[in-house]
Design brief:
The protein is an alpha/beta fold. It has 13 helices and 9 strands. It has 2 domains: about 60 residues, Arc Repressor Mutant, subunit A, CATH 1.10.10.10; about 240 residues, 3-Layer(aba) Sandwich (Rossmann fold), CATH 3.40.50.1360. It starts with 6 loop residues before the first helix and ends with a helix.
């Protein structure tokens, strides 16, 4: 049986893309060519989206109120945090598994923009693991996925789907090793060095954003202990990117585990183009805000409630 992304999620994504095109064309006065570049689709696709909007009643001298509200929030995120783009998943925070809904939206967003035979860097985490499986299930041609860290299990396919249309380029090591000497020795291994050298050559990068909640992936997977987590909190950590812990301003926390971590650096991440951060839910607000303040992201995909909390927190200086 052919497995594809849930049709309702795809329809929701297509509608959101159509609303973006309508907004940029009729409200922001962008040209069709500018919209094509902004959305990462062809100009003919933009024309089709605008025609479909007229036929389905999305455009009736004004954009439907709910969609208009989301577009305004997206524009506010882009403006306030210097992003290239933002995509808000409506109602995801009220679902039993918001990570799944956000991951599906992220996979659709990436596939719309990924060229044939594209290489995509992928970070460690629960949400990114879900994205990886959705990408590999929905891609028409094999997509090349490059891991940004050790921890091979996180990048392995969920074979329940029966389809995994992806080529994996994995760092062959644990995420956290015993000593700095071991980390340095592994980093010099040709097979490891080759993967890290591929990272800057990829066309886009996808990262999850970890929280300091009790259900954090790095904690539930047993990579860090509760004592490790407590120490990090006492040092001011509010979350992590690629397992590098940050304070509320996005500055790295100097911790012993940094010397034992097999993961692409935060400084390196900041230098990459097209970095897409994917996270949502009440427990992620502080961590996402830190990633945005640290200027590590070019695009944010999140849920509507989280987006509003981010803007409110930044406005009040929380």
């Amino acid at each position: 049986m052919e497995h594809i992304l849930d049709r309702r999620d795809r329809a929701g994504y297509d509608r959101a893309l159509m609303v973006k095109a309508v907004w940029y064309y009729y409200i922001e006065n962008y040209t069709q060519q500018q919209i094509s570049q902004l959305l990462g689709v062809s100009r003919s696709k933009v024309i089709s989206l605008l025609d479909n909007a007229r036929q389905t009643g999305v455009i009736q001298f004004s954009v439907c109120q709910d969609d208009s509200g989301r577009m305004q929030v997206e524009r506010a995120l882009i403006s306030r945090f210097g992003l290239q783009d933002a995509f808000i998943v409506p109602g995801a925070s009220s679902l039993p598994s918001p990570n799944e809904s956000i991951a599906q939206a992220a996979a659709m967003y990436i596939l719309r923009r990924a060229e044939e035979n594209a290489f995509v860097n992928m970070g460690y985490g629960d949400t990114t693991s879900r994205i990886l499986n959705h990408l590999a299930t929905a891609a028409q041609s094999p997509i090349n996925l490059v891991s940004l860290s050790g921890g091979v299990n996180c990048y392995l396919p969920n074979m329940d789907s029966g389809i995994f249309n992806a080529r994996l380029y994995l760092v062959p090591s644990p995420l956290l090793v015993s000593t700095r000497a071991v980390r340095d020795a592994l980093r010099r291994e040709p097979d490891v060095d080759e993967i890290f050298r591929m990272v800057p050559l990829s066309s886009m990068t996808v990262v999850g954003i970890g929280s300091m909640e009790d259900d954090a992936t790095i904690l539930s997977n047993g990579i860090l202990s509760k004592n490790d987590f407590t120490v990090l909190k006492l040092q001011g950590a509010v979350g992590d990117l690629l397992s590098h812990f940050m304070d509320k301003n996005g500055e790295p926390i100097s911790a012993d585990l940094e010397e034992r971590l097999m993961s692409f650096s935060l400084d390196g991440l900041r230098q990459l183009d097209n970095v897409i951060g994917v996270a949502g839910g009440p427990g992620k607000t502080d961590a996402i805000l830190a990633a945005l303040r640290g200027r590590y992201l070019d695009v944010l995909i999140t849920d509507e409630d989280t987006a509003l909390r981010l803007l409110q927190a930044e406005q009040t200086g929380a």
